[in-house]
């Protein structure tokens, strides 16, 4: 008998129907909204999928071998997932992140044995990415580069997309995802568009001046190379205040304790539901809310 390993528990996350937030008006239009609970992955986020994919595929190609040092710039979830995957497969993980990100994220990375390099808040993720490249040039390790690595979106093409199609019995009409590295939306979109060109793919980004962990608009020179704009049919923008209000509603009204980026995607899903009929709308619940407790978004 073969027993499962922790790797085997990545993916096949639940797809659950929202019961209260959509309200009578949306239900009267024949619409349902479903959230894919990626916080149920072992390291707690949707990033578990690409993290294992990037390490396992690089290892299979002979690009890396157990014992090597890996480097990645991260805002949190990818770093935690990579730290877990590195622990499973026997790699040293060096994670570079801005100093202003939540302490829970740092603690989770450290728990998996990762070395953490903090960068100035003012430099943002752009500085962290530049430092990762510099460290690789100095021979300190290999950068996996979630922003340019095709092993990121292919994980969603092979797993997340097929799961959504399967669990909706092919009824999905709209897919909504927050956009950070863009790996999730690109991989899922590629799969869904292959099985049904009619499915609409909706991206979620922050409004100008909003700071929402896990969602962002990049300066042109830092745009993720894995992103294909043709994979996104519609772009919607969400304010920080709306996303933070919605994340509290998700917990209090649906019992779904999620992160703020998931709430941003839900704001967009609700907009979609107000203008269509007989739709099955799926949004990604990227991670869990316990990753944000120290930020004050869930006041006691």
From TrEMBL:
NCBIfam families: cysKM, cysM, PRK11761.1. Pyridoxal 5'-phosphate binds at residues 77, 180-184, 261. Its cofactor is pyridoxal 5'-phosphate. Its EC number is 2.5.1.47. The modification N6-(pyridoxal phosphate)lysine is found at residue 47. Transmembrane segments: none annotated. This is Cysteine synthase. Keywords: Amino-acid biosynthesis, Cysteine biosynthesis, Pyridoxal phosphate, Transferase. Residues 6-287 form the Tryptophan synthase beta chain-like PALP domain. It catalyses: O-acetyl-L-serine + hydrogen sulfide = L-cysteine + acetate. One of its GO terms (molecular function) is cysteine synthase activity. Gene3D superfamilies: 3.40.50.1100. One of its GO terms (biological process) is cysteine biosynthetic process from serine. It is an enzyme of class 2 (transferase). Belongs to the cysteine synthase/cystathionine beta-synthase family. Pathway: Amino-acid biosynthesis; L-cysteine biosynthesis; L-cysteine from L-serine: step 2/2. CDD domains: CBS_like. Pfam families: PALP. InterPro entries: Cys_synth (IPR005856), Cys_Synth/Cystath_Beta-Synth (IPR050214), CysM (IPR005858), P-phosphate_BS (IPR001216), TrpB-like_PALP (IPR001926), TrpB-like_PALP_sf (IPR036052).
